[in-house]
Amino acid sequence: MSEAVRRLFGTDGIRGVANRAPMDASTALRLGQAAGRFFNRGSYRHRVVIGKDTRLSGYMLEPALTAGFVGAGMDVVLVGPLPTPAIAMLTRSLRADLGVMISASHNPFEDNGIKLFGPDGLKLSDAEEAQIEALMAADLSAQLVGPSRLGRASRLEDAPGRYIEAVKASFPKGRSLSGMRIVVDCAHGAAYKVAPTVLWELGAEVVPVGVAPDGFNINRECGSTAPARMAELVRERRADLGIALDGDADRLVLADEKGQIIDGDQILAVIAQSLQEQGRLQGGAVVATVMSNLGLERFLHGRRLKLLRTKVGDRYVSERMRETGCNLGGEQSGHMILSDFGTTGDGLMAALQVLAMLAEEGRPASEVCRRFTPLPQRLVNVRYAGASPLQDAAVQAAIAAAEKRLEKRGRVLIRPSGTEPVIRVMAEAEEESIVEETVHELAALIRARAAAGAVAERPTPENSVPELAGEAG
Fold this sequence. Notes:
34% helix; 20% strand; disordered C terminus
């Protein structure tokens, strides 16, 4: 099916304001019915795993989805608040037909989202999402099961323990975090229990923050989109490393012992070099998105490795990894996919790979985690109402002119968000003044040409990294 058919699904599932269409109970019910029908493909008992983060609206969406799946004849396994990668893992280990994560990732508590995983633990393709959306728009009354074939719902009490052991298994055998002090910010989100537990069981002294969710405080001035407090605690407690996860823990940013932020590009470089030196890097390349810094590409080139770029979204990174046989990919925003251990971004597993290198080399994170000097890069988000301003001829001409101006010295990237009415304006080049000038001029023009309505420039937050304002979109 064509991309145009996908109206509900964006680059990372369905997302919106809680209790407002499409993120309301009626849509969730219909999604459960349609996805249940889509994956009901045999005479055996079908099963779906449903997890969530800590948002208040999860209490509304979880039972609505459950009702939809039960009505479609699927048994439902509820696991409660767990990271997104845990749901992908459990979908496979429980031989389920489908996995569902209720989360809006880095967004504030007012938002929520629904992500779907197939039986292989991979996010659904665009074509599969389009088919499910078509079923949602159709009359499903005749396709739901009869009373004797209704599904059942149960709760898997040991789900957190299963994920904890899977994450620990990704850490090198015989190695320990003993003697290391680690600050971990769980964003009051899905990893608030499992992340500190993993680090403690591996021997670390753990300084937990963001581990008191109340349904409203997820991602509020904490987590990977606001790592300043985590970085401050690293300095105050003289920690060896700081880890900031987002609300569903599928991505991270780090802070070295000086409190300096380490973004996804540097983390990719660290892990790529480690895997290459161990002879474990597959495909002769690393997969990243168009947002990754040219400095990363040059670093990999110097090690005779390629950087394969995709459009933004960790599922596109995952798809390219499978196509090319690569086992490492990620995003500048902190999604890290290590296909030797999992099928989707896992912030905690990625952090353990970096910690393993710190433990092995015995050097501080400020030395181990600075593999290249990034080119100056600037990202500005321009919010708009109505039709996309990217269709305007003057905007298109200005973009073309900027691309030509930076052709040999850098690059320009202008793209619409896949999760909100925002145009992302990015430039990078050797000279910071050129970057600032290019982004300022393009953003001002796009804002001026935008459709009538509230349009506001939203720069990337200080102490953050580019693209954190719009995960997977």
